[in-house]
Every structure is written in structure tokens, then in C-alpha cells.
């Protein structure tokens, strides 16, 4: 029994480690990643409209860069629990099992892709194409925090430097 409590504590701790990205942070990450990868304003506009028709290495790496800064992508793949945590930030009616299944099937579909930038981009494109709701979850997860949440996240952010 004690072992289970310890495991539960570790799982909770790992989940609590992930700080949801609010709009302010997202814009900061997007600017840094666009600059690092040489992404044009026009390409960013495409992505802002959730148009994933761009075949471009800079765009692929830009997307991966943002996911890495958000702690959604580590060691060459997606951190599913962190993705769910981020998506929960924007909606109360998230179907965890369905979202996890969609993400897992997209990761599985593209797992042979050795270019990790292309892998991240294709999984995002696949995930959004699986279900109309996924796009809504993604969009609403970047809505700014309420004041109370923002202060808490801000304090937690300073304690958790990368």
C-alpha cells in the first residue's frame, strides 16, 4: 500500500511540474522560435490560421521549437501527459481517452520519421485532422489565464527555470 502511495505521489509531482503556457508565454516562444528558425511573417500567418499546408523545414523546426519550450515535446517525441494538461487549460469537457488515442495514433503513424522537426509538424497536422474538437482544444488552451491563475503560474514559473 505504501508503495502505491509513493507511486501516486510521483505521478502527481510529474504532472504538477508542467506549467501550462498562456498566451503571453506562447507569443514569447513563437517569436523566439521564428527568429531561431528564420520563419517569415507569412508562414506564421499560415500557422495562426491552422493551415498546415507548408512544406518547409524552417516551419517544421519552428513548430518543434515551440513544443519544446512548452514542455510538450522532449527527447524526440511528445509528452502526452503534458499535452493533455495544456489542453485541459482551455476546456473543461476534454475527453482524455479520445485525445490520448488521437495523439498516440498520430505519433505511431509518423514514428519512422527521423527528422524530428518534420515528425513534430506532421503529428500536429495529423492530430488536428483527427477530430474537429482537437483544433478547438488547441486554440482555447492559449487563452490568457484569469488573474489568480496568472499570479500562481507566474510564481511557479520563477521557481522552475530551465
TrEMBL record:
Q: Which InterPro entries match?
A: PBP/GOBP, PBP_GOBP_sf
Q: Which GO terms describe its molecular function?
A: odorant binding
> Quick one: a GO biological-process term for this protein?
sensory perception of smell
Signal peptide residues on this chain, from the entry's feature table: 1-16
Q: Which Pfam family, an example, fits this chain? A: PBP_GOBP
Q: What is one term from the GO cellular component aspect held by the record?
A: extracellular space
Q: Which UniProt keywords apply?
A: Disulfide bond, Secreted, Signal
| Gene3D superfamilies associated with the record | Pheromone/general odorant binding protein domain
Any idea where this protein resides? Secreted
Q: Which PANTHER family match?
A: GENERAL ODORANT-BINDING PROTEIN 99A-RELATED (PTHR11857:SF46), ODORANT BINDING PROTEIN-RELATED (PTHR11857)
Its family remark reads:
Belongs to the PBP/GOBP family.
- Full protein name: CSON000114 protein
What organism is the protein native to?
Culicoides sonorensis (Biting midge)
Amino acid at each position: 500500500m505504501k508503495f502505491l502511495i509513493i507511486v501516486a505521489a510521483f505521478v502527481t509531482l510529474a504532472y504538477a511540474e508542467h506549467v501550462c503556457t498562456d498566451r503571453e508565454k506562447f507569443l514569447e516562444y513563437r517569436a523566439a522560435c521564428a527568429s531561431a528558425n528564420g520563419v517569415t511573417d507569412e508562414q506564421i500567418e499560415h500557422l495562426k490560421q491552422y493551415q498546415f499546408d507548408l512544406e518547409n523545414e524552417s516551419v517544421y523546426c519552428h513548430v518543434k521549437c515551440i513544443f519544446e519550450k512548452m514542455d510538450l515535446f522532449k527527447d524526440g517525441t511528445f509528452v502526452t501527459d503534458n499535452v493533455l494538461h495544456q489542453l485541459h487549460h482551455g476546456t473543461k469537457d476534454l475527453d482524455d481517452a479520445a485525445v490520448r488515442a488521437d495523439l498516440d495514433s498520430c505519433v505511431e503513424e509518423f514514428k519512422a520519421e527521423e527528422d524530428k522537426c518534420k515528425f513534430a509538424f506532421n503529428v500536429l497536422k495529423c492530430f488536428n485532422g483527427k477530430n474537429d474538437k482537437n483544433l478547438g482544444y488547441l486554440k482555447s488552451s492559449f487563452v490568457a489565464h484569469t488573474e489568480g491563475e496568472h499570479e500562481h503560474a507566474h510564481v511557479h514559473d520563477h521557481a522552475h527555470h530551465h
